[in-house]
Batch of 2 targets.
Target 1
Amino acid sequence: MSKIVVDNLRKTYGDTVALDNISFEVPAGEFVIILGVSGSGKSTLLRCMSALTEPTAGQVLIDGEPMTSTKPEVAMIFQQHNIIGDMSAYSNALSGGINRSSFLESVLQLQDNDEKQQALEALDTVGLLEEAEQKSRRMSGGQQQRVGIARALTQEPEVLLADEPVASLDPGSAQDVMGYLNRAADERDLTTFISLHQVNIARKYGQRFIGLHDGEKVFDGYREDLTLDVIDEIYGDIDTEGMFVSHGENESNRGSTDNQTSPNRGATL
Amino acid sequence: MTDSQDTNRSESESGPGSESETEPKTDPTPKPDTEPEPHPDGGVDESKPLESASAGVNEQFENIRKTRRQRAIGWVVLTASIAFVTIQGLVATEFFSDRTRFTWSHFADRMGDYFPVTTNEIPGLDAGIPFLDIGSYWEFIMSNELIYDPEVGRLIFQFPPYLGDYYAFFFEELGMFTVFGEAGTTLAMGVVGTILGFPLALLFSVLASERVTPFPINLIFRAVMSFIRSIPAIVWALIFVALVGLGAAAATLAIALNTIGNLGRLFVEELEELEQGPIEAMRTTGASKPQVVFFGMLSQVRTSFIAWTLYILEINVRSAVTVGVIGAGGLGAVVATQESRLMFGNMMATLFVIFVLVFVVELFSQRLRARLRSDQEKQSIRELITGFPNRMADSLLR
């Protein structure tokens, strides 16, 4: 359980401002969705929070401690899942807890049974217990992403960061993966940050939303505050018609899978 | 028609991507000019604009013709420069010098020595059919134990089989390689050289990678590998003679050392092209540096490292022949001895053995590499052997 404070975070690449003095506070256990078009700074924000990228100014505090280097308490899930294709789903999940074992233990998989149990339970959480022995390279995109989640869970994090975890998945798998992420965050009381560009998926699962536009925070609020105007502001000039179907979530999700790609398409134009 | 297809194809092969958009316009089949919807094509006189085409089509057509002409000029210039360089090189390599005389008759005589001919006497007739004297090759191969050492071989090739001798063969005589005589020595030089060189090649390549060692320091490891590579194995063997004396041991050390340079270089190349993703993923789990290297980096390249090692094994077996020529044992030494005795037939017999050895090693390594690279379920060894006739027939009938 960790409280997260992002304090005046700024990141520039040369003249380009990727993040412009972002600040927010998130109490422990919240399920936060970061919205924005491509290039709005979502990835940079998450990378700064996981300490993969060093901010130009400002800091990220987790339970009052600044994130200066990567930590086991903060797990990250990537768009390209970044699991190890040559290893089985189980070995990948096991590698999440690598920080708790020595080099030889981890290489020869001599971790004690607790660790192995944890890896298998993480696979169970994402519904891949049956496929544990499968080589992950041969799995589908959605399954690979779930292996990535299992690895992050085995890490026993307090904070879970996910950078567009469903962007390269088909609508069905995207729903699956989001569902498993939601369940994992719930079961394990994780403070979760997920960047997304599909508004309908975001609305279905999100508790709190942070909107970024051109590196600036343009919205920070809970579900009831996320109105069409807000979406318009986050997505700027892009035609948002059809991206946003208000309330009646279950219906809208069934009916709007076609629309999922539209923010993405608009963003890359 | 075929002409225009050909030129179109060559254009799409050599042209940069930007031109591929315009290409379909030149593609359609030739049609009479009277057609209401004309298509530009190679059949039309190229010096004239297309009469019935719109301005845009004509402009693009003109552009394409211009780039094609430029490319043709480019090819002519390139061909001329290559010819120019070749002539200079031939002079430098004394092809036109007075000392270089092409004496084909002498060469043909010598070839006769390489390929001894015997005649098959046909009973009742004076004449016979001349054919290559394979018997003399075989006699030399067997008498000099090029491929089989009977002293060692008798332990396993006997009837009835005696288990104690099998034990003696593997654990007392250690005869896995020596049973193959001189060929076994050459093979062992290549195999052991590869095995000894591999761990150091791995270590050096990882340390030479910029991701592991910061920039100026990693150059040290690269330089060491460059230095090793710049000296050929045969010269290294001469250097190691001082350490272990002239023989197969010196050759093996030389091959092992060269493996560090060559295999390490291939590993470095492979490590350069790593994806950042898995490395970052391992970093976020809080892994230690060696763990990041092993799980984030090496796991990405495991298959290709094995494949490269097999490739280097092929090269090392060939290089074991070369190194042997200085007298360091194996088939290479036999070649050198027979050459100095002017026994060219025996030399040729040895070359055949070398060919078979290298071919078998390459076949083995290539099949194994193909299997490693393929994503399909692996065939079992048994299936690999029993299924061979079927697959062979399949590929012959294809």
Note: Residues 246-269 of chain A have pLDDT under 50 and may be disordered.
Target 2
Amino acid sequence: MGIFKKKKNEISAEQTNTEIEPKKTEPPKADPKETEVRGKKEKKEKESREKYREYDAISDRRKAEGRQAFRRTLVAVFFAFLFLMPTVLTFTNSFMTASEINANYGAIFAQNTSGGKVFVSEVVNLKFIPDMVTFSQYATVLFKSPEYLMKFWNSVIFVVPIVIFQLLVASLASFGFARYRGKVKQLIFFLYIVLMLMPYQVTLVPNFMVSSELGIIGTRWAIWLPGIFSPFAVYMLTKYMRRIPYSLYEAAAIDGAGEWQIFTQICMPICRGGLASIAILIFIDYWNMVEQPLILLDNEEMYPLSVFLSRINAGEISLAFAVAVIYMVLPMLFFLYGEEYLVEGILYQGGIKE
Amino acid sequence: MSSDAGKKLDRYLKENAAQARKEKKYGSARFRRWRGRAVSWVYLLPSLIGVGLFFVLPFGVVIYYSVVNNPVQHEFVGLRNFINTWGNNAFSLAARNTLLFSVVAVPLAVILSLWLAVIMESRIPLKSLFRTFFLSPMMVPIASVILVWQVLFDYNGLVNVILGRIGIDRIDWLKSDYAPIVIVLLFLWKNLGYNMILFMSGLSSVPKDQIEVARLESASETQIFWMIKLRYLSSTIMFVLIMSLINSFKVFREVYLLTGDYPYNSLYMMQHFMNNTFQSMDYQKLSSAAIIMALFMMVVIGILLIAEDRFGRDLEQ
């Protein structure tokens, strides 16, 4: 605070230096009555001057703020362009013909495509607007080769149960963590944090071993079960629930509500925003999974779309964009529906421990 | 007067009776608390079983595998596996690269996203639209990300085309010592948006009156930022740090897909080491590497926890 005061003094000193001397229009008179009147007048003038100076300062600040806002808008536009570019590119390029896509990106994937007679530009050609808008890619993906739709369906089958049941398990567990606390629970919660932070590279091996012990390798359960019991949602939701004032639970308990009633009728409705935002995060995480299916499943027919999309560079580049757009549809719907939750729902202040 | 007192007594008796009835029905307050505590463990149970089965128990198996000589003989060999792994060239290369990446990328992600959040916090038009744009990398499929990054950084890619116009020689970005920069950019691009959202919600919870007071005392915006906002953001910074750390391990998926099994040396990450070891079914090397990594992570988490404790106390004072 001291620094602020010092700064204030400096500013006021500057202002007094540059102060314009008031013009003395009236010649001085000896009349005491007159002097009194003049004194009042001067006081009034001084007051109004000060007021105006204040207004000036405010308007200066406004102007500076305006300039700053303009600069910041430019920065935001620049970043928005960078961030949005791949999405836009994917979308517009999905309307290109196969030959156009091959011509544009052939320089990169030349080694992968068979040596047929296609025109390939020497360097890559990043184009946002297609020469000719065509839906042929979509037609191929949707009608001619149903395996893409099957893979899309695979993704849905993997992700939806994981989101629903992880949230279910996590909301029960977080209620257990947040409602009553204790030394043992604190320790367990710390363990959850450690497990959550473990990179997938570390959990991969244990995961594989236990799945093979349980005999679920190669079945969907090998993906579902570790996903459902992942500690991530427990951590996030517990942080969220701990912000609910304890007195709220107590009040409900005094009114005779049982634990289950407190959970379903007080805790869950308050956590709706948090649940939505965590659901989006889980959804995106598992929608994009690549390693788990590759390691835990051996039947390629079960692979989700993300695995296929991650390998698309090997060929089929012309279809990649259309498939990618179809792939983005669900996350995009989730975002449009839940973005407010994602933005407002994460209003808890999260440290890592409590 | 007497009727008033009578009413009071009446009410008192009624309340007492209600309390007694309630206690008869639900048990005393103490009993209720005790039962609540017990019930809260029941709520925890499904998660505890699942986590125990799929995360804790497997880890025990990994520890076991890391101290035996091979999966068939099960002969105890002490720390030999760890020493072998530690001395392994591929492991040390992967560890060094991964560490370097995390040390550079994670703080950068925190600082840049905070900067973006401050920018977004000021009065700029179409704020919510910009916010959506910044979040859009979260939903772009990996394939598109990889494609765009290849379009940009391939030997025949866009960046080289632009560099060529200025007269700089082409660089094969992904097969040079500059490759980590490309990956850091990819990581930042993917994660800045979400981090920024976290920071924006953090900034919005800084008490307004303190900022107002500081403004009245002619504090500059920079001073307000460093001395007020940043102090209130310390727990958010912690959280963003954690999320970035988690996500920094996820970006290796993109690296892996971008470069294949054996990339340029500067890009050989833990992910490559683990995958290659997994494919050769060398459980000893794999589990000892996993444990070394886990121990390292525990140290990092411990440091973060201590740091958070410090920051938290700092704010309370």
Note: Residues 95 and 134 of chain A are 5 Å apart (CA to CA).
